[in-house]
Amino acid sequence: MNVPSSLSALLQPRSVAVYGASATPGKLGHSVLVNLRRCGFDGVVIPVHPQAAEIDGLPCRASLADGAASHPAQAVDCAFLAVPAAAVPAALADCERAGVRSVIIGSSGYAELGDDTGRQRQAFVSAWARRTGIRVLGPNTNGILSVPASLSLGYNAAHAQLPPAGPVSVVSHSGALFDVVARRIVELGCGLSRFVPVGNEADIQLNEVLAWLVDDPHTRVIGLVIEGLGDGEGFRRLCLQARSRGKFVVALKLGRGARAAHATQAHSSRLAGAARAYDALFASAGIASVDTIEALAGACALLAGFTAVSPHGVLPVLADPRWVAVTTSGAGGALVADMMAARGLALAGEDDGRWPPRVEELLRALPTSAPIVSPIDTGSLGDWSLLEPTWTILESEGFLGPTIAFAHRPASTAMSEALLQALAGRRRRCPAPVLLLVPGGWDEALEQRCRAAGVLVFHDTVSCFDSLAAFAACVSGEEAAAPSPAAVHAGATTARAGRVLTELESARLLAAAGVPMVQSCPASSLEEALDAARGIGFPVVLKALAEGVAHKHDLGLVQVGIADEAGLARSMEAMRQQLARHGLDPNDTPWIVQPMLRAPLELLVGVTREPALGRFLVVGLGGLLAEEVNAVEVFPVDDSGDRIARRLAGSAVARMVAKTSGAAAQAVLRDVQAVVEHLRVFALQEPQVESVDINPLLAGPGICVAVDALVVLRHDASAGPLQAPATAPADFPVLHPAPAVPAGAHHPRSER
């Protein structure tokens, strides 16, 4: 992504103008001007006010453009508009005449209002920015922070003081959270580089600021507060680029429960939904996701203090992920163990809480009669004095991972000092983080000394362990997947965009892509259906392909397990009556006959497009109850096949395959993974495919075949051609012969 140089004018300006500057305390223009000067900005500062001659000792201009005659010609890098929304157009016109390079609109009253007036105001700002080329941050933003430039340009309470410099930058859709995030990061002993609230994104988008920070030498950890993304695929590429530059990214997604999955023809789309799509996007981009502001700040601070270096010069990884935990009570140890287990974090030691035999032998030599297990209960040790020799033993045996101490308020100053010295010593010797969890707080002076020694102090239990989980996700060493190139098919097409393909059309497309499809024989009459059934062999499945009906089963247009010719005739007549009942012409409805297959497991494999985020693969348990069971895995379609296969191997799908396929489970899982890979490549090659449902995909020993499929094309025909015949040929071939079916397998329940 090419980021306009004007972002540097915004984030590293040499001159700033403040429209609406005021000498009256309490006014936004007064706060902006005072904060800017108080925090040490050493560039040119120009208050703009229609009447005042000077404010706070600075000469004012009635306008930047009209004052050019009495001031040296100088283009202003950044103008902050602390004026009401109604006054913004005039200020923008003045900025244009004066040649301002970037603008921050601090006022509200735009699209966030949800009314026509607000939308029209925002549309005006967007059009103005496009026409002039002047970059606009906001509207509805309270200003920015750029510590390397000594720039605190805004009216939030946190703008009143420049925080310590550090490697953490934050981009947020919300400016109101600036104070909370900044204060918590500083409390944890970490510093800040930039804070950029993008507001309504009338011009500058979150992705553009993210791209700038990827190149920013002052930023090593990027925190994101996201309400919604406009370009999920571009976002993922930027996050992968950040990883390649050795930078960590942590995201807090707001409004996860605000919108259900969008209404759609496909099960896959309803099963994915926005929340799962965001989770899949974050995971595939190698970034950590948190649920609270406190966890975002905590994770950023942990990552900022992580000093291990990757041997390949890219993202550092944690060589030893096992957490060494110490507590002051048995209850504290149980709490630590439970919290870590719930988040998949590994404690040092064995699964039963014991240490390896060699370590246990060395620990027994310590002067205590109590057993030393993991987590280490210092109540058994009597005080903290044995921590140093305990850690010396663990470090000699290779336990160099991160450390957490869970402490109550100590009974004596000597115990406090012993703990502090032990934590500081551990931090000096190990590159991984060392932190102290003290519910309710500790002595402030001791906490300050901890932070000075590089030990992070947490007061809240849940946010502490959520921060640990986010830290672990970033430094786990799992390789994020580079986007796969989309190889688009060449050739003519007769398929129309914006429609649901018939089952035969869908099956032909998917079979050509390598997905094993059930044998399907078309029929236009009972006689042709009987001929097809005799050729296939009973039992069979009969389906009516009514135009515009995506889910045939819901209308009673699927009959499974038809045992003989009489049963086929009865089924067709019953379905003809169903067609008529729903206003469909039975004489103009094609039919298909398929073999009745059985398998121990039904899966759903599909593709869905989530608005603004891109397209995703959905893999989960299928059948009629797919949405009720709701056990799915979601991946961006341009995720790597290897990463998807690894994730599937640890999923609910793999566990069900193991339960239903016994000794053949690994072979069955490989077959399922192959189908998912074929569908992934198909989606990459066919960008005009809106959604796909393969439900069910029958899986078991000796069988992996789709018995129903639905492909929906985009309404936007600009996506390109699709190699799909408008109708299936009369002699629709056997795409994949039905494999041998093991005895005892069950009937599929969910053909559409």
**Proportion of strand residues:** 15-25%
User: Major sheet: order of its strands?
Assistant: 9-8-11-10-12-13-14
Q: Main sheet, how many strands, which sense, barrel? A: 7 strands, mixed
Question: What is the name of the CATH class of the largest domain?
Answer: Alpha Beta
Kindly name the structural category.
Answer: alpha/beta
The first-to-last residue Cα distance is: 43 Å
Q: Any idea what the radius of gyration is?
A: 32 Å
The total of beta strands comes to 29
Overall average pLDDT:
86
Tally of helical segments: 23
Question: How many domains make up the coordinates?
Answer: 4
Describe the structure.
This protein is of the alpha/beta class and 752 residues long. The chain folds into four domains: 267 residues, 3-Layer(aba) Sandwich (Rossmann fold), CATH 3.40.50; 151 residues, Succinyl-CoA synthetase domains (Rossmann fold, 3-Layer(aba) Sandwich); 184 residues, ATP-grasp fold, B domain (D-amino Acid Aminotransferase, Chain A, domain 1, 2-Layer Sandwich), CATH 3.30.470; 77 residues, Dna Ligase, domain 1 (2-Layer Sandwich). It is 35% helix and 19% strand. It is built from 23 helices and 29 strands. A seven-stranded mixed β-sheet has the order 9-8-11-10-12-13-14, with helices on both faces. Strand 24 and strand 25 form a beta hairpin. The chain is flat, with a radius of gyration of 32 Å. The relative contact order is 0.08. The C terminus is likely disordered.
